[in-house]
């Protein structure tokens, strides 16, 4: 892999806490900072397409994401996405041929100590380099087929669908 395209949609990985509002807002994409701090040995380009909690991503947003990725010449694509509707988006992206697309995110904001963001991004980077064409989800230390995984909200993790 010489070049990695990264498309960001928001989600918890990019959330920041505002004390004065006592809530979270989706902030600037964090993945570029994460990769630079880790000193990765490949080139990457970040396209920040959305800045939304995934519960607010709709069909038009998914089509914009699909069209943006399909229009790029890059074969290896990493998408940061909120975890609640990541599987839905992955299914839409599965219509794009000739690319390895890996979606990842975080269950805790990247700016928080102990966040799973760096680990999930690392898993996704390894997956996007080694898997055949298709769409995958990299969460909780595993790489999943979107048709065979779901987010277990109560347990706050991804798990296999029977």
Key features of this structure:
two-stranded antiparallel ribbon; Rossmann fold; six-stranded mixed β-sheet; 162 residues; alpha/beta
Give the CATH class: Alpha Beta
CATH architecture annotation: 3-Layer(aba) Sandwich
- The total count of strands amounts to 10
What is the helical fraction, as a range of percent?
A: 25-40%
> N- to C-terminal separation?
33 Å
Helix run count: 4
Q: Please state the average pLDDT score.
A: 92
Overall tally of domains? 1
Mind telling me the C-alpha Rg? 15 Å
CATH topology heading: Rossmann fold
Main pleated sheet = 6 strands, mixed
The unreliable regions are none
**What is the structural class?**
alpha/beta
Oligomer category: single chain
Order of helices and strands: EEEHEHEHEHEEEE
The CATH H-level superfamily is: L-asparaginase, N-terminal domain
Kindly report the spatial arrangement of strands forming the biggest sheet: 4-1-5-6-7-8
Overview of this structure, please?
The radius of gyration is 15 Å and the shape is globular. It has a single domain (3-74, 83-160), classed as Rossmann fold (3-Layer(aba) Sandwich). The chain has 4 helices and 10 strands, in the order E-E-E-H-E-H-E-H-E-H-E-E-E-E. The strands form 3 sheets. The chain has a 6-stranded mixed β-sheet, sandwiched between helices. The protein has a two-stranded antiparallel ribbon with strand order 2-3. Strands 9-10 form a two-stranded antiparallel ribbon. Strand 9 and strand 10 form a beta hairpin. With 162 residues, it is an alpha/beta fold.
